[in-house]
Amino acid sequence: MDLRRIESALSGTVFDRKVHVFARVESTNALAVKAAMEGAPEGTLFVADAQTAGRGRGGHGWHSEAGTGLYLSFVLRPAKMIAREALWLSLAAGAAVHDGVREATGISADLRWPNDLLVGSKKFCGILAEQQSEGEDVRFMVVGIGINVNHAEFPPELNEIATSLRIVAGREQDRIKVLELVLRAFDREYRRLLHPPRGSAGEELLQRLPRISTWISGKQVHVPEQGGYDGVTAGLDQRGFLLVRTAQGMRTVLSGGVREPL
User: Fold this and answer.
1) Between helices 87-105 and 175-194, what is the axis angle to 10°?
2) Do the bridges between strand 137-147 and strand 249-253 make them parallel or antiparallel, or are there none, so unpaired?
3) 3-class DSSP state for residue 15?
């Protein structure tokens, strides 16, 4: 991972001149959280060529093969955003990966609420957002993104659920170009959230999300939270949370995510 090329690619964004590149780390999110707690400025970005203890949502591990994927985390300090609005940052990251990957590779991904990116039924990107708040104020948020870029194959236990941009496109991809376009897309999303062209934070994003996700409406899903239940997705509420219509009535998914029915 060429630091100079990455810095040049991200010039003028929130990440400008705040990039840290490592050959191997345990977890970029762990590095970013530690840096944030020590006062690292907004936009501080950690990129690793490999992770030995990559983390996904719910404590799951993330397969972080050396030299093939993108493993990155960054610090945000959204002064105008309150804690209950923080979901928008995670959704914005998902939208940014969708747009950046499409621009870099031509691949149109499907966003599985709130922050997995799939092609067909197979996942190639996971997003982990961690926040620290003081009352209603967000002190900082760390967003971690893992993208399977040039993986040619996966361990047997992942073959049925994971894919990569290389496998889908049939050719190797330029990792730094994907990194640039994803983070430039996030920079645009973030600026729109902090300074919405109209209405409140997230209102414009709320209108766009159904166009990049088949999971938001009319999808039969299983929800693991609250003991687990099945239903059909019925859109997002005004806060960005997923609504699911069940036999017992409408329910709101507040944490975790959704899967296809068992």
Assistant:
1) 140
2) unpaired
3) coil
Structure tokens at 42: 């907004």
CA 228 to chain CA centroid, Å, is 24
pLDDT digits (tens, 9 = 90+) for 56-92: 544 455 556 788 999 999 999 998 788 888 899 999 9
Q: Which two tokens stand for residue 221?
A: 């899903």
SS (H, E, C) 53-109: CCECHHHCECCCCCCCCEEEEEEECCCCCEHHHCHHHHHHHHHHHHHHHHHHHCCCC
Reported as a single tens digit per residue, the pLDDT across 127-162 is 999 999 988 888 999 999 999 999 999 989 898 999
- CA-CA distance, 163 to 87, in Å (whole number)? 26
Q: How far apart are CA 118 and CA 141, in angstroms?
A: 24
Measured CA angle at 40 (ends 34, 46), to 5 deg: 65
Cα 247 to the center of its chain, rounded Å = 31
Residues with Cβ < 8 Å from 256, sequence gap 6 or more? 57, 58, 223, 224, 225
Tokens linked to 54: 């990559």
Q: Report the C-alpha gap between 224 and 42 in whole angstroms.
A: 33
